[in-house]
Amino acid sequence: MGNEDERVEYSATNDVYMHYDGFRWQAGSFLVTGVFVFWGLLIQQQLPRAVIVVASFLVTVLMAIWLLFAHHYRQIYLAKLHRLRELERQIGAEQHRRFSRLDAVGALIYPSVGPRGHHLDIAVFVVTSVGSVALGAARDGFAWVLLSSLPLVTAVAGLVLWNERRYIARLQTVVEMYNVNRTPAEGAHR
User: Exposed site from 41, 69, 73, 129, fewest CB < 10 Å?
Assistant: First the structure.
């Protein structure tokens, strides 16, 4: 069942994988809470439209930074997950490989269904960014200036999706280069 060094590396890699997978939501939960507090103030106080616009833009900037941070962490934990699968092959374990291995008929053993976490990250970003605009419009009526943060929302979400595709393609190249021991029944499912 593998040598001691491989088991130690596996344990350490799994710990780091779990850290990177969970920390983005730990950090994000504080930011989302702050957005809800801001929305409460927006609803309860009569603020000038300019304050609503600037505050909404600042919420968008802050949540954009969080989304870019979350995506950076996703890249790290995808690489860690790849290494975990390599180590599992070497030591005969299957904790993570069952989520990427195909069965005899070519279907994933444990397929995931529904939206993936990184898509939910983008959804949280969009909702928190657009929510301020919607609340401002609901309270004071629509004005085009309320849409000033939408170009940033679109650009950041597009950048993250584009980087995701690039990173997955790069990871596939790494899988092909370094994964010569992969069996045909295993895929590089993300």
Answer: 41
